[in-house]
User: Fold this.
Amino acid sequence: MEKPGGGGVLSAKEAFEKLEKVGEGTYGKVYRAREKATGKIVALKKTRLHEDEEGVPPTTLREVSILRMLSRDPHVVRLMDVKQGQNKEGKTVLYLVFEYMDTDLKKFIRSFRQTGQTVPPQTIKSLMYQLCKGVAFCHGHGILHRDLKPHNLLMDPKTMMLKIADLGLARAFTVPIKKYTHEILTLWYRAPEVLLGATHYSMAVDIWSVGCIFAELVTKQALFPGDSELQQLLHIFRLLGTPNEDVWPGVSKLMNWHEYPQWNPQSLSTAVPSLDELGLDLLSQMLKYEPSKRISAKKAMEHAYFDDLDKRHL
Amino acid sequence: MPQPHSPSFLLCQQHYSFSFQQHSQTLTPPSPFTFPDNHQHDHLLSLLSKQRATHSSFSPRHDVVRWISTVSDFHAFAPLTTVLAVNYFDRFVTTLRFQSEQKPWMTHLAALACVSLAAKVEETRVPLLFDFQVGESKFLFEAKTIQKMELLVLSTLEWKMNPVTPISFFQHFLARLGLKRHLHSEFLCRCQRLLLSVIADSRVMSYLPSTLAAAIMIHIIKEIEPLNATEYQNQLPGLLKTSEEQVNECYKLILGLYVCSNGIHNLRRKRLSEPSSSPDGVIDASFSCDSSNDSWTVASPSVEPVFKRRKPQDQQMRLPSVNRVVIDVLNTPR
Assistant:
């Protein structure tokens, strides 16, 4: 990666030609752009800095600094440069220059849903292995992603290569895990400990998200599509049973714990009927209530579900 | 988890080696050593290999570190936030080497930007930029000025804001030493406090983070578990792949500092009600200037209201310090 921030001699406007807007985030827009010097297609993530406000946004700061650590992994999106420029009003703007990926897992799943096709089992296996590998790499470097969801998993549909992106909510964690904000993670992929108000959480929050994504790849539907924190919990409890101190010691002491309706656990095969036995076993280990009992990303890669996968190019 | 000396432990053990720089030697741990889980092992390998890239030592900067500690105490920041801020500052000034005697305000502005960035990286609640300006500082900076310095610090440090610090190693070593579980949090707490108390001394910071962590842990182990101290002490250099000599040298230095002054924090966090010692916000050290920082100029006091977005009671608290110079930075290098 070129030294970020220096950005060479050319400003972002001189160096890139914007082709189209492809998204919008909290702090600015994302464009597909062409690097004028090489003709290479890149993604430009524009971040506005309001001079009268609070400097560089923490999300941008964390995303860039974390990608400086992680960008060499093939399953984490590559940050190529950070360029500083000014907009029409003379305000400072940062452009994060990323490698461009054609699609994301959300669009990929939607395309199968629209055509009524199922995602081939070996494709699911390959994508899941790559996801576990990317998450294991993040965790091995002391990074929690905290916002894993299909939309944040970029893909090249030709090569079926998957890359973790959007580390705006990611953070380096200390051991032991200290108190973090519990208002993280998109609702559908949010771990029960976060929903119940835990502020001391760990890598297991990412593994829960991976489990939800796994099920969604198989069924083409979100596993727990709640529209509020309470509804989200109830979705989880209906399938996995209402937790108690036996299955999850300490659950009743969490900040948002109340007396919830009592449901018995269902077999995961009722929710994900087309998943084979090994897949169901892996999924069940990813969706364990007690965070410390949830499988790690590294252990997940070693699970028998992946035994018949050709891992040479992954 | 395999037990020490069980066949499975020994089988695992033969593959268990650290790759640190050119070294790759198998670790044969003494008996209290417990085998770490894979994740922690990977993380430790990662820390050991990265620590040189984000480590810097720098001549006297005692006042700046005192001021950073004052800010951290005032806002009840985590120890890691303080350590990160000092790391950023050290790396920044050693890279830029600006002349602090000619431009003391610039040193203070750099320190301010470093604390702000550290808080954004580590804290869940970040104060307003204005609220970082606590203590008896001679200077008061506008938000846009601090933002410009933040960007300069970030580009100078190449946005590498998650460096390896001694705190990164405390828990990893602790997990391997087999210290009694109920002592863990007390042990970590004391290690962090001792680190904060010696961080202002640039001699201490010239050691690699892992060496400093080991030396601090030896000191604390001798306080907490004096009977087993020697046994634990012998294990640490092996975990580090570092020379025992370096750890002992660092330990002696810490011991000297501890005995002399008990450090900035007196080995306990100052209560907010206590008056904080007021740093000048200026480094004593001289720098050779080979950069083009002459384009940073001091403007006349800005018209921005000093108490923008502050509660009335806070404004009253701060009134005595209004006579500080308000600085704006023009022509910031882009």
Q: What stands out?
A: Chain A touches chain B at residues 3-6, 49, 51-58, 61-62, 64-66, 68-69, 82, 84, 92, 136, 139-142, 171-172, 174-176, 178-181, 203, 296, 298-299 (CB under 8 Å). The longest strand of chain A covers residues 16-24. DSSP finds ten helices and ten strands in chain A. Residues 13-99 of chain A form a domain with the Phosphorylase Kinase; domain 1 fold (CATH 3.30.200.20).
